[in-house]
Amino acid sequence: MNTRIIIILLRILLSVLFIFSAISKLVAPGLFEITILNQGIIETRVMAAYLGRLLIALELFLGVALLQPYYLKRIILPTALLTLLGFTILLFFVHFSGDSSNCGCFGEIIKMSPLEAIVKNIVLLFIGVYVFLQSNYKTKKIHFPTIILFISIGTVFIVAPLKSYEDLIFSKYTNFQNEGMVDLTSGDKLVAVFFIDCEHCMEVANEIVMLEKETSKLHNFYILFSGEETDSVEHFLVQTNINHPYEKIPIEDFFDLIGNAPPRIYWLQDGLVKEYWDEEFLEKIKYFLDETS
């Protein structure tokens, strides 16, 4: 196999990986936004949404542009190498901070720890450098990569349009025990708000467990717990046997989310409150299941 064929195959490999990386993030762009927030790159969800989509568009552009011959050595490959290097440096900081959760490189399709992603990127950097050194300069037809860039940006913002998070009060709850990153602003989800030492909350949790035994385990069901600092979520879980992703929230958030008394269960559609229930929970949950099945 001659060098030219090897270079073409390596370019295709890089192209496929960049395109796959972009598509995997587009499947759940909200989770990529949360990843950016958790890594401390951006402070607000709105800015993370813009940055996330621009990074996805960059990956899509690089993936497609690697398949054409123009400005490879002057623009495309250097940009690809700098992108990989930038991500790798960031991943080093994340890894040494002790975070071993999914880095988001391939969204939720292929979960990778920061260390695994670093190894992957180093391999791709070596491949990219080799392809760069063996490539020829072709600087004609700048409109080819330019068109690809604009199409990539347009595609990403059409497939994953920006949303306003001002009215999405649940968008700040993103890290759930037993599941990791969760985007409550995407799809249909049930969110229960429980107080840890509330007997009525425990009764409702027990009823939900019994319903699951009769039917099947509820999917897209999440719990927001609140309580005094000394209150133990584990005690609630042991007493009720409920097993769903949960996050503990500040007491002030808890009072904003309940009615006259806990518990309350919210039905969210893309982060917006479709309905909320303060009674007849099992009947309402069955209704939810019928409507979303």
Describe the fold and architecture.
The protein is of the alpha/beta class and 293 residues long. It folds into two domains: 3-159, no CATH class; 169-292, Glutaredoxin (3-Layer(aba) Sandwich). Helices cover 55% and strands 11% of the residues. The chain is built from ten helices and seven strands. The protein has helices at residues 3-27, 29-38, 45-65, 72-96, 114-134, 143-159, 199-214, 233-240, 251-257, 281-292; strands at residues 175-176, 180-181, 188-195, 221-226, 246-248, 264-269, 272-277. The strands form two sheets. Strands 5-4-3-6-7 form a five-stranded mixed beta sheet. Strands 1-2 form a two-stranded antiparallel ribbon. It is elongated and about 70 Å long.
Key terms:
293 residues; Glutaredoxin; five-stranded mixed beta sheet; 55% helix; 11% strand; elongated
Give the helix level as a range of percent: 55-70%
Number of domains: 2
Number of helical segments with 4 or more residues: 10
Alpha carbon gap, first and last residue = 53 Å
Coarse morphology: elongated
Quick rundown:
The chain is an alpha/beta fold and 293 residues long. It has 10 helices and 7 strands. The strands form 2 sheets. Strands 5-4-3-6-7 form a 5-stranded mixed beta sheet. Strands 1-2 form a two-stranded antiparallel sheet.
SSE layout:
Elements: H1 3-27, H2 29-38, H3 45-65, H4 72-96, H5 114-134, H6 143-159, E1 175-176, E2 180-181, E3 188-195, H7 199-214, E4 221-226, H8 233-240, E5 246-248, H9 251-257, E6 264-269, E7 272-277, H10 281-292
Parallel strand pairs: 3-4, 4-5
Antiparallel strand pairs: 1-2, 3-6, 6-7
